[in-house]
Amino acid sequence: MTDQTPLVIFTPSGKRGHFPVGTPILTAARQLGVDLDSVCGGRGICSKCQIAPAYGDFPKHGVTVRDGALSDWNEVEARYDRVRGLKKGRRLGCQAKVEGDIVVDVPPESQVHKQVVRKAASTKPIVMDPATKLVMIDVVEPDMHSPSGDLERVADALQAQWDIGPVTARLPVLKALQPALRKGKWQVSVAVHTPAGSDTSQILGVWPGFHEGGLYGLAVDLGSTTIAAHLCDLSDGRVLASSGLMNPQIRFGEDLMSRVSYVMMNPGGDAEMTAAVQEALNTLAVDIATEAGIDPALIFETVIVCNPVMHHLLLGIDPVELGQAPFALATSGSLTLDARDIGLSDIAPTAQLYLLPCIAGHVGADAAAVALAEEPNTSQDLALIVDVGTNAEILLGDTNGVLACSSPTGPAFEGAQISAGQRAAPGAIERIEIDPVTKEPRFRVIGVDAWSDDADFPADTQITGICGSGIIEAVAEMRMAGLLDASGLIGSAEATGTARCEPTGRTHAYLIHDATATGGPRVTVTQGDIRAIQLAKSALYAGARLLMDQRGVTKVDRVVLAGAFGAHISPKHAMVLGMIPDVPLDKVQSAGNAAGHGARIALCNRAARTSIEAIVRDIHKVETAVEPRFQEHFVNANAIPHATDPFPELAQVVTLPNVAFGASGSAPGDGGGRRRRRRG
Amino acid sequence: MTDQTPLVIFTPSGKRGHFPVGTPILTAARQLGVDLDSVCGGRGICSKCQIAPAYGDFPKHGVTVRDGALSDWNEVEARYDRVRGLKKGRRLGCQAKVEGDIVVDVPPESQVHKQVVRKAASTKPIVMDPATKLVMIDVVEPDMHSPSGDLERVADALQAQWDIGPVTARLPVLKALQPALRKGKWQVSVAVHTPAGSDTSQILGVWPGFHEGGLYGLAVDLGSTTIAAHLCDLSDGRVLASSGLMNPQIRFGEDLMSRVSYVMMNPGGDAEMTAAVQEALNTLAVDIATEAGIDPALIFETVIVCNPVMHHLLLGIDPVELGQAPFALATSGSLTLDARDIGLSDIAPTAQLYLLPCIAGHVGADAAAVALAEEPNTSQDLALIVDVGTNAEILLGDTNGVLACSSPTGPAFEGAQISAGQRAAPGAIERIEIDPVTKEPRFRVIGVDAWSDDADFPADTQITGICGSGIIEAVAEMRMAGLLDASGLIGSAEATGTARCEPTGRTHAYLIHDATATGGPRVTVTQGDIRAIQLAKSALYAGARLLMDQRGVTKVDRVVLAGAFGAHISPKHAMVLGMIPDVPLDKVQSAGNAAGHGARIALCNRAARTSIEAIVRDIHKVETAVEPRFQEHFVNANAIPHATDPFPELAQVVTLPNVAFGASGSAPGDGGGRRRRRRG
After folding, report:
1. Is there a cis peptide before residue A12, judged by omega within 30 degrees of 0?
2. What is the dihedral sign for C-alpha A610, A613, A617, A620?
């Protein structure tokens, strides 16, 4: 190649080289190692290799690009534009050929390793590199004089045309192979799965010619209470649909330990729960595909994250060992299985399942997924990441190391075991403020934009209860308004000066809203509700403190609240309650469903699987169940915000009234010192 | 180690070394790399490490072994002897410890890579090295402070105690793992499968403590007509039971091409045939295990060999491409699958299936198995190996290279399409001689030792027909006795001088035996029978000749007759018939069921799998269907023994009468020149 041949410069990579006139841009890109996508291998079918040529003077690059620097539109491009429409200024990289010096921009969507921008701006984008990819190949026709199987010639084509190493195929693919090759006239598209860290691939699907239908993956966060799934396009990582349903195992027990007990009491109970959750997952897969308008048989990958008990029950492993010390997992490593092994019978028959590794007997693949999404191991400052749910997963760490534990918060944060509690759904009070002078509440209801005291708050709003974030705000507001003392005791009407503090037996309850006139409930916060929240928040705080002890610190730099519910918690209220350690309020971030995001990362990026497996090995696990200090932290955390730890950052924002409603002003006898239930 | 420590010499290996007093013999053997077996890892349970110490003067080795050179019997040995009995002079290698210079003989059955002696003395023994092995391990108990899964600690134990690399486990094993570990008090036996050429193993089974039940494998020769299976002990290769059944696909078509036609005519017909053969295999597996008195769930490996059409129908692949040029296989490589994938649902749920590679579209895994058993590639002289069945697999080769083809002989050699033909079973005439002077026959019947003209031949013998080897001898004897001319025409009673040559329409038949008096058939050889045999033998000979053409030779050094039927063919009669090329009679060997033997080798020896995959790649495939010379060879081979090829070796043994019964003495119009059916 001499300097006489045209210069091709790619942006944004800046890669450049000289190529003979007539070289397709895709070819030039491949030779230079430019990240330009193609599925059809340069046949002008897939349109993945779209590029944007730039004309004019480019002093920075030292070239002038003249009209005619690329070949004219050819028939393939014209047809593509006619049928599907090509964005203005775009060319197909496989069709446009070099005629003169040219600057070629590769738009983000044309990169193989394109980045998927996530909602939370604080987190890094996902780089696309899924384990399952679609490629189109030309296969050599059979020759009886040099006989070889069709599969072997497909393997040769994958090697020669896509540099994909040894491949295997299971029976569903072997059955489909010969008709597809002949129908496609020896051109087929194949879905190729390469497990992380492997150099052997498996063909999961085959289609005649170019497969228009795409490949899809399912990222599932299998929680004790809810199952949430994202359906992703494996070519670009887009979430096409998200869906969720209740975990049907709830009928066997609300929390994990009651499910383990169910197995102990009912031989075969594990098989019942396994069948229930497998069936639910299969239904969810079909429903989400239907919602997105795709064929469920095009789902070729599934990534599931869940806690250890869910993990074992999903796989059909008796979880009884997880219910007693030393809490031994049957397997802690990541698993790559056939999805059909866990009853996913309505997606692709060859679909693969990847389960993230578990961190310990009480710290599951969901915590690993949070670690993958939030990357505490790369944090410069010391981050405390709390995935709030029926069970809280807690991670503490920075580049010097990461610690993890789980803590049994119980279902109170999700609105369960609360007198007027309900799941976050229309009609639920989700935010609340209490006037410190009048002690009157105002609130917002899910599904209504206005606050309850706004003029445009609809008079006919159905108010059905209070959800998890609502109860946290209510308790914190009650504390701030002087209706609740540090021990968690609600004051009487006399002591607080508001008739909303109603006597209920020997204790009091605060009335937020009386909806009985419209057939609704009386929404109150009872003394029992306060106790339930105290138990939950004490468990959470004690878990965090235990990790801080292990790390030898008394404060953290920032707090990340994760979990579907964590995203809705007000940092200030969480801190008034003493759920989380004291940090500046602007250092409390919300990460949304970090476990689900972690699942999606593992779905879209093969290397992330290797990475999390290594990270998990390095995480220091702390077992809350047997740490004597956990109990001590738990008792001290029972006060609101805390009996002994100062909250100086909180004090800068909020001054808590110094009230006391008990005989002695100390915590009453029904306080949270005794925890019988181990986990939620 | 100084020369002061005792010297331990192992025989027959001759390996020697000095070891401190108190070293167990098993430990010494392992350190020296002596091939001494052990499953329990030295716990005195499995008795696989039995050794025979030798005492006295050994000038050859330069040592004198004194009494007391080994430690006294300990309790473990005493208990073992009490419960199971230890052969006189034997010790347990893991219990007997070095006390002085000692010579230790390792008997053949105590070697890991023990040799399995096969019946045919001409063939090499199988060296035991199965893909699935049983080992016993001590597993570290779980520790919640350094949590890891039970599987991960099992993997650590396999690595440390048996040098077995990374392992995986599927759900059935994960489910069984925790109970087994606890029941076995952290001592378990595991069945570990390591595919040929892989460094990753899979745990297929787990048992508490020492697993007494053994591991078993099934070697299956899946033929068009019959399915034959050997159940082997994977520890020593012993055949515990052999069983066979008819291929139920026969109801869809007698030969391969009629089955392919059935699929073409009946959409879904392939699925019917797949279900039929899979069900038959599962039944066979259970039956053979029952016969051997073992639990079918202890069958962990299955090796199947079969022709390409059977191969595809077994796997559920539509075989239609095999029915037309270019006879493309869906896959030609070897396959390792889960046995449950082909419906083997009653053996171990994790059982593995290995299918040998196919050589070409018409030359299957059965031919590959014959190549593995007979090793033409290592033959110093040029060997022609013929696996005679409904379809004949033919291999020609020596160390300079191997050629292969298949030839559609049809079912005549198996007694089908023969007027009095029947399968080889009691009552069938299997051997026959015809007196050249009197033209009277004498014969032997399956199930009776005496010849028919012996005094002690039971008068009440039920004679039901004539089997494959019987019809071959009959035709050859008729030719030698002058009842049949070279063109294949049977002479009349007048021309031959015997009333046994009866007119039947325009042709004649030779009466072997009239059993009508006892309610049996009239067993005759008709002109149609002769034609069927001529078609079959011409196809066989033409295939062999085609390979000889390709190799550029007109004679071979030796002929091996393989196949269940091949073992029963008399070499002289086969040569009179012109089934096989002319060689000295003592150069015609019988190899028994070589395909089945090949399957057994692949079952017992992992390296054989890698080896046959390489051999198959090097075999030169010849497609008889499209070779013009095949037709020419076929026509010339129609004469008995041959129209043009001289048979000088045969002539030294047999002088064939120069008779001619046709008008011109040449082949009549109904001769075998036209072959419509492609394959059998």
Report:
1. yes
2. positive
Q: Quote the Cα angle for B399-B404-B410, to 5°.
A: 145
Q: What domains sit in chain B, N to C, each tagged with a CATH number?
A: 7-110 (3.10.20.30), 116-208 (3.10.20.880), 216-355 (3.30.420.480)
Separation in Å, CA of A621 to nearest CA in chain B: 7
Asked if A323 and A261 touch (Cβ cutoff 8 Å), the reply is yes
Contact A361 B144 (CB under 8 A): yes
Output the 3-class SS for A573-611.
Answer: HHHHHCCCCCCCHHHEEEEECHHHHHHHHHHHEHHHHHH
Partner-chain contact A144 B361, CB within 8 Å:
yes
Which residues from chain B sit within 8 angstroms of residue A623, using beta carbons? 144-145, 147
Per-residue pLDDT tens for A124-137? 688 999 999 999 99
Contact status, residue B26 vs residue B96, Cβ threshold 8 Å: no
Q: Are A38 and A114 in contact (CB under 8 A)?
A: no
Note the ipTM here: 0.86
pLDDT at A423 over 90: no
Chain B positions touching A304 (Cβ under 8 A) are none
Q: Could B337 and A147 be called an inter-chain contact, meaning their C-beta atoms sit closer than 8 Å?
A: no
Pick the closest to residue A465 from A518, A428, A514 (CA basis): A428
CB contact under 8 A, A360 and B144: yes
- Residue A304, C-beta contacts closer than 8 angstroms, at least 6 positions apart: A220, A222, A281, A314, A353, A354, A355, A356, A365, A599
Residue B191 buriedness (CB in 10 A; 0-12 / 13-18 / 19+)? buried
pLDDT averaged over every residue in chain A: 91
Sequential DSSP letters for A307-342 = -HHHHHHHHT--GGGGGSTT---S--S-EEEEGGGG
CB-based contact, B271 to chain A, within 8 Å: no
Q: How many helices (H) and strands (E) does chain B have?
A: 16, 31
How far apart, in whole angstroms, are the C-alpha atoms of residue B211 and residue B199? 25
DSSP strand E in B327-369: where?
335-338, 352-355
Cα separation, B634 vs B615, in Å, equals 29
Q: Which residue among B178, B315, B325 sits closest to A174, beta carbon to beta carbon?
A: B315
Q: What is the pLDDT of residues A539-581, one digit of tens each?
A: 999 999 999 999 999 999 999 998 867 778 889 999 999 999 9
Residues 6+ apart with CB under 8 A from B302: B217, B218, B219, B220, B285, B339, B344, B347, B351, B352, B353, B354
CA distance B143 to chain A (A): 6
- In angstroms, the separation between the Cα of residue A623 and the nearest Cα of chain B is 7
The tokens of A332 are what? 């802690």
The answer to whether B491 and B659 have CB atoms below 8 angstroms apart is: yes
Crossing angle of helices A256-265 and A269-292, in 10° steps, is 130
- Looking at the complex, does the CB of residue A174 fall below 8 Å from at least one CB of chain B? yes
Tokens at A581, concatenated: 């350690």
Q: Above pLDDT 70, what percent of chain A?
A: 96
Q: Is A620 helix (H, G, I), strand (E, B) or coil?
A: strand
Residues ≥6 apart with Cβ < 8 Å to A72: none
Q: If you count them, how many residues does chain A have?
A: 680
Q: Are B150 and A331 in contact (CB under 8 A)?
A: yes
**Cβ partners under 8 Å of residue A669, min gap 6:** none
CB-CB contact of A622 with A546 (8 Å): yes
B622 in Cβ contact with B546 (< 8 Å): yes
Mean pLDDT by 10 residues, chain B (680 residues): 79 92 94 90 88 93 92 90 88 94 92 70 76 96 90 97 95 97 97 93 97 95 90 93 90 86 92 96 96 97 96 96 92 96 97 96 93 95 91 94 90 83 88 96 94 92 90 95 96 94 94 89 95 94 96 96 80 94 93 90 95 94 87 94 93 93 51 39
